[in-house]
Amino acid sequence: MTAFDGSSASRRADFGSALLLPACAGLLLFGTALGLVAQYAAERRLFVAVALMEGAVYAAGVAFVLRGKGQGRLVLILGAAAALRLAALAAPVYLSTDINRYVWDGRVQAAGINPYRYIPTDPHLRFLRDRRVFPHINRNNYAPTIYPPAAEMLFFAATRFGGGRVTVKLFLVALEALGIWALARVLRLAGRPPETILLYAWHPLPVWEIAGSGHVDAATVALIALALWAGIAGRRGACGSALAAATLTKFFPSVIGPALWRPPDWRLPATFVATIVLLYLPYIGVGSRVLGFLPGYVAEENIASGSGIWLLDIVRAVAPLPTLAYAGLAALVMGSLALAALRRPPGAEASLAWAAILFAAALFIVSPHYPWYFVPLVALLALAPPGLLWWPALWPTLAAPLLDWHPVTGIVPGWVGDTIYGGFVLLAAWSLARRWRAA
Questions:
Q1: How far apart are the first and last CA of the chain?
Q2: What is the largest CA-CA distance in the chain?
Q3: Tens digit of pLDDT for each residue in 208-265?
Q4: Do 80 and 203 contact (CB within 8 A), yes or no?
Q5: Residue in 234, 302, 224 with CA at minimum distance from that of residue 268
Q6: Could you give phi then psi for residue 248, rounded to 5 degrees?
Q7: Measured between alpha carbons, how far is 155 from 162 in angstroms, rounded to an integer?
Q8: Is the preceding omega at residue 264 within 30 degrees of 0, hence cis?
Q9: Where are any strands of DSSP class E within 139-220?
């Protein structure tokens, strides 16, 4: 009787395990439908609650896969990932209006005009205005584009397939699909189960920020993944070019360079610099204005004053610390991490670990105000070795939807920053304490 009961319990456990991933996929699809309803109803806080619920479901799926129980489920994982993105494509322009700037910049370039030359309301661009995109471009009456040259080239490429917002979103989802393929190649080179791709493909943040809102971070993910693949495969020149292109979609990817470079090999830094120069050349006719709105953005987001940086605000609650001093300390920390990354042991695991560490550290130091900045971190954590401080680093990506809580973008309530960044600190301390006790 005991043996029979044990066998029955084992069969029930196996049956439950077989249903867990399909159940998670179903719940994520339900959450996506509910999130669309919330956005069309302009219920911002309902959407945030749904996104957080999806994060909890995702975490259950991740725990299942990391325990080695997802073998043979790759078709389900990729099929659900595709379904989530197809559904999210129906999202309105609600959480972010950045896609309007993408469409506009592509349209300006298609007209043969340097996108860094004029602000959208300049009379020179009057003939490009319409009623659907132009009125909804953020900062259209005072800010030139902020996006670097690689991003601008992609915006132009998207206009070759049509000039609307849906076309741009489809183009970016296709780029993300390339990124997922490259991430899978990296996992294979690192000797990981292919089902580990779930760690990126099912995360609700990329689904909403790329397929839903249409952010250019899709290209950042794809180019980072290609750089990692090339670097681990020993193709230093290709790695440097891909990393440079990723840097010129969003500037953050440059911080992972030390995790890929192996001194004194000159190929990676040489191709990195050469690619940066080549990508800037088509736009250099405007001189220093090729930086676009970047200096203004740094001031507008209170980064220059330091009041928009979570850790600096915490320190200043105890003692005054000049922004310049914080910048110096941050440079010292990042420099020390970069030096440690350059001295890493050989092998793919060390490179992938340090790439995640460097990117996570940069995000924590700057503490972005927008959730889409965390999308590349999701990709890097999907590749990071299981022994890394994994769940603490994942926490900010799961809590990032809280940055959409306030109806005015860029305004971050104190409790939101404390939850995202303070939660990371507490979880990291708890994880380190557990390791110290075990040791």
A1: 43
A2: 86
A3: 999 999 999 999 999 999 999 999 999 999 999 999 999 999 999 999 999 999 999 9
A4: no
A5: 234
A6: -95, 20
A7: 11
A8: yes
A9: none
